[in-house]
């Protein structure tokens, strides 16, 4: 079955460009489009896409609030890929904090767009660029530090979390630690449970905000 995608952007040319790139792939299908975040929930319920590629800045309902609304009201919500013009945009970070699974720059090459959609659909988040990691560090807070302290991660789980924060996939982490992929998956599941994180993105945000991982 192909990965199904809903495109949400107030610029028709952006939607047309993304559709042309994604529909050219045999394993990806664009199933719908919307010009604003206010249309996302009914379309998600109707079309049941695997991934929503959503602009972060829109006039009626921006990508941050639309992300929150989807995750709050839709059963088995899709993965959300934030589409943005600037990688150091604070809106991007707020969208990730709200529950988005990754981000994509509008100027990305076609191969990068396809890779981003496939990666998010598989549940492995994209690498935060240095600018977004720096924003995460700026949002350091006591709550994140308390969450990490109460989690009492094992030494191996800490190592896995650091590699997750670098953007490594499960296969890459397994290679780095010289363990099996299934072992890594078990560690990731344990980390998410201990941190109370919805997904890898939320776990990595906690790692940065707590100071456990440095943006350098």
UniProtKB/TrEMBL annotation:
GO MF: DNA binding
Coiled coil regions in record: none
One Pfam short name: GerE
Domain HTH luxR-type: 146-211
InterPro entries the record matches: CheY-like_superfamily (IPR011006), NreC/VraR/RcsB-like_REC (IPR058245), Sig_transdc_resp-reg_C-effctor (IPR016032), Sig_transdc_resp-reg_receiver (IPR001789), Tscrpt_reg_LuxR_C (IPR000792), WalR-like (IPR039420)
Keywords assigned by UniProt, alphabetized: DNA-binding, Phosphoprotein, Transcription, Transcription regulation
SUPFAM superfamilies: C-terminal effector domain of the bipartite response regulators, CheY-like
Domain Response regulatory, residue spans: 4-121
CDD domains: LuxR_C_like, REC_NarL-like
Entry keyword Cell inner membrane: no
Residues carrying 4-aspartylphosphate: 55
Protein's UniProt name: DNA-binding response regulator
């Amino acid at each position: 079955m192909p990965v199904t995608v809903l495109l949400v952007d107030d610029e028709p040319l952006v939607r047309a460009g993304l559709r042309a790139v994604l529909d050219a792939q045999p394993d990806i299908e664009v199933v719908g489009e919307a010009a604003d975040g206010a249309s996302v929930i009914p379309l998600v319920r109707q079309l049941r896409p695997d991934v929503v590629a959503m602009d972060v800045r829109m006039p009626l309902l921006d990508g941050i609030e639309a992300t929150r609304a989807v995750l709050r009201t839709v059963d088995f919500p899709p993965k959300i890929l934030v589409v943005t013009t600037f990688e150091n945009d604070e809106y991007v970070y707020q969208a990730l904090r709200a529950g988005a699974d990754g981000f994509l720059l509008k100027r990305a090459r076609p191969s990068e767009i396809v890779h981003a959609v496939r990666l998010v659909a598989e549940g492995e988040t994209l690498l935060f660029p240095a600018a977004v990691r720096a924003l995460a560090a700026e949002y350091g807070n006591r709550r994140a530090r308390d969450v990490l302290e109460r989690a009492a991660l094992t030494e191996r789980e800490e190592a896995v979390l650091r590699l997750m924060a670098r953007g490594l996939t499960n296969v890459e982490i397994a290679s780095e630690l010289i363990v099996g992929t299934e072992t890594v998956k078990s560690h990731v599941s344990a980390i998410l449970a201990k941190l109370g994180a919805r997904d890898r993105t939320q776990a990595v945000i906690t790692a940065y905000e707590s100071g456990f991982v440095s943006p350098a």
